[in-house]
Amino acid sequence: MTTTIGIDVSKATLDVMIVQEQSRHHQQFANTAKGHQQVHGWLHKHQAEQAPVCLEATGRYGQAITRFLYERATPVSVVNPRRIKAYGESLLQRNKTDKSDAWLIADFCRTQQPRRWQPPDPALETLQAWQRRVEDLQQMRTQEINRLEALDKGAVVYPFIRRHLRILEREIRKVEQAIAAHIQTAPHIQQTHELLTSIVGIGDKSARQILAELPDIHTFDNAAELAAYAGVSPRQKRSGSSVRGRSRLVKIGSAKLRKALFFPALVAMRFNPHLKLVAERLLAAGKPKMVVVGAIMRKLLCLIYAILKSGRPYDPTYRFSA
Question: In terms of pTM, does the model score above 0.90?
Fold first, then answer.
């Protein structure tokens, strides 16, 4: 008997749907530690604790239940929400409720059999937490700078914003120091960091950003899969003789990884001997600059895949065809 389970995750609740050949069972649980225990007990009651489970990648709201199920040997998959949405559209799904979404996720699990989730490397998980924290602080700093620039120095809140800016600067320095120390204490991360910075265009801070958002490279069979994960694969719009739309990035994937690649791509277009050739050829062909930047981001990701797979640093003298 085929059994699959879909979980529709929200901040407060988990809608769980067990789909078997002749029956469906639905139950809602609190998205809490106690609720997770109840989910496992309910699955056991229906003899489904070893059945494959799917849920959407909904950020931090689904992380706890995912890890909870994994630690109890339940096969769990975390799927890009866009894939679930596209699957529902292919079935002409009309209703949108938590219950129907849970069924859709379970049916997707049955027909698509997505790759099982594996927990991230603890050291990389820590790096990601630190890196995302420093980015949050930098964003707050930018907001405060903008507020300060819009104010007269005599404004009553001016000194308070200045004081907050100094606090943010101190916190940013502390977190950046913590990141540097963490990399030094994790040899495998340090090695990967050195490989990344061997690529002309990727500096120390960019390498940290990429490292924090890059999954285990060995989970991808080729560079094209990694490019698709990041959302830097080109999408063409051509049909017959009349439809000739511009190529664009798919942008269905990790926005944070794309962001981490953006500035290195701009630098590589100017100073990387291999990628500069690619950029010049595309610009000469009349491609818009942002399309060229997207192409360089993809090329960078292919280089990253190659050097991390091989364990050998980037060689700028290697013979290369643009």
Answer: no
